[in-house]
Automatic annotation (TrEMBL):
InterPro entries linked: G_ENGB_dom (IPR030393), GTP-bd (IPR006073), GTP-bd_ribosome_bio_YsxC (IPR019987), P-loop_NTPase (IPR027417)
Organism expressing this protein natively: Mucilaginibacter gynuensis
Domain (EngB-type G): residue spans on this chain: 22-197
Obligatory cofactor(s): Mg(2+)
Homology family: Belongs to the TRAFAC class TrmE-Era-EngA-EngB-Septin-like GTPase superfamily. EngB GTPase family.
Function of the protein: Necessary for normal cell division and for the maintenance of normal septation.
Official protein name in the record: Probable GTP-binding protein EngB
Signal peptide: none
Keywords, ordered alphabetically: Cell cycle, Cell division, GTP-binding, Magnesium, Metal-binding, Nucleotide-binding, Septation
Matching NCBIfam families: GTPase_YsxC
Domain of life, source organism: Bacteria
Length: 207
């Protein structure tokens, strides 16, 4: 897929204010600082499109970006950021989980995992929750430029094994680096295929 256009549409804290679910949508989620916003900028080849930061907790809202006028990428706040209060974490949880659970046009959740780390409980638990809800997801292992390919492969194998404790089959995965564009063609190719099967949901209940 060639990305001809990528534009910021809106930021939201209210699910009722999201764009109508008439286009296929892909949500990017993962721990704070894992590289969600950077990956979105890499895929769209627009550096400042999604705000990135070295400080975790940069993305605080549900951000919609429209690609080629046909599909949305959604940048979500990271989970597991230690420095926010418990009540804020709970608010985040409720809000994001209800978005993921209810968004009719959501095609696939991209769960971003830091490829440098051994399986983290919070990531495995989040995948388990997606599985319980029957939500379709794929894994994107980020920051692969930061260590050897062997190390990346080892961590991926460990993560897949951790998922096999609760899943019969592990979802597809992508190895990515926003620094050197690894994984770009693969992810865009995947999205392009899923887009082909999109059926516009009946939204009469929303109007
Ligand atoms: N070397 C390298 N650094 C990366 C990569 N992806 C992200 N980073 C860096 O990691 C930091 C966090 O990136 P963000 O894209 O802001 O992460 P995020 O997941 O959107 O973070 P929050 O919005 O705070 O949850 C930034 O300093 C990025 O430059 C990558 O593929 N390689
Ligand atoms: Mg971000």
């Amino acid at each position: 897929m060639i990305v001809k256009s990528a534009e910021f549409i809106c930021s939201n804290t209210q699910i009722s204010k999201l764009p109508l679910p008439l286009k296929p949508e892909y949500a990017f989620i993962g721990r704070s600082n894992v590289g969600k916003s950077s990956l979105i900028n890499m895929l769209t080849e627009k550096k400042g499109l999604a705000k990135t930061s070295q400080t975790p907790g940069k993305t605080q809202l549900i951000n919609h970006f429209l690609i080629n006028d046909t599909w949305y990428i959604v940048d979500l706040p990271g989970y597991g950021y230690a420095k926010i209060s418990k009540s804020k974490k709970e608010d985040w949880n409720k809000f994001i989980r209800s978005y993921l659970d209810k968004r009719e046009s959501l095609q696939t959740v991209f769960v971003l995992i830091d490829s440098r780390l051994e399986p983290q409980k919070i990531d495995v638990e989040f995948c388990n929750w997606l599985g319980e809800k029957g939500l379709s997801f794929v894994l994107a292992f980020t920051k692969a430029d930061k260590q050897s390919a062997v190390k990346t492969d080892q961590n991926i194998a460990k993560f897949r094994k951790a998922l096999l404790a609760s899943f019969e089959e592990v979802p597809p995965f992508f190895i990515t680096s926003s620094e050197n564009h690894i994984g770009r063609d693969e992810i865009l190719g995947f999205i392009s295929q899923v887009n082909q099967n999109f059926e516009v949901p009946d939204i009469s209940h929303l109007q």
